[in-house]
Amino acid sequence: METGNLVGKRSMNKAEMEEEDDDKDENVEEDTKRKRVLTRSGRKVSTGEGSKQPSCQVENCSADMADAKAYHRRHKVCEFHAKSPAVLIGGHQQRFCQQCSRFHLLAEFDEAKRSCRRRLAGHNERRRKSSCDSPGEGSI
């Protein structure tokens, strides 16, 4: 290792190293007491392990999510309502978007499609870009 890289860096003495090890041990103990999850925005939130069973977001749905697939439990939607053309949530008719994995108002979908217009537009844009990059494919 070059000594030039060490300029301005301090070395730890034995007491500092032991103190750092103690801090690591305390962090491990805290982690075992409660789990935390890092969200997309970078916030840490508690997982709430002692919470009730996950249930479907749709009003008056009493589906048992205990045996549901992990995908459906994670997004809090039963398999039936994930595939339904329209459901009632918060007093509004909505549909589950397969791309966003969340419910949108029916107006955000084209006809009976299961992906919202915004995500479909992005998908189509990517398809157009890739077809322009390689001319000659698909044409005779």
Quick structural summary:
This protein has helices at about 15-35, 70-75, 80, 115-135; strands at about 35-40, 45, 85-90, 90-95, 100-105. It has about 140 residues and is α+β, with helices and mostly antiparallel strands. It comes from Petunia hybrida (Petunia).
Structure description:
Residues 17-29 have a biased composition (Acidic residues). Residues 34-43, 118-129 have a biased composition (Basic residues). Residues 1-57, 118-140 are annotated as: Disordered. The chain is α+β, with helices and mostly antiparallel strands. It has a domain at 70-131: DNA-binding domain of squamosa promoter binding protein-like 12 (lacking the second zinc- binding site), CATH 4.10.1100. It has 4 helices and 5 strands, in the order αββααβββα. Strands 3-4-5 form a 3-stranded antiparallel beta sheet, with no helix packed on it. A two-stranded antiparallel ribbon has the order 1-2. The N and C termini lie far apart (60 Å). The model is unreliable at 22-34 (pLDDT under 50).
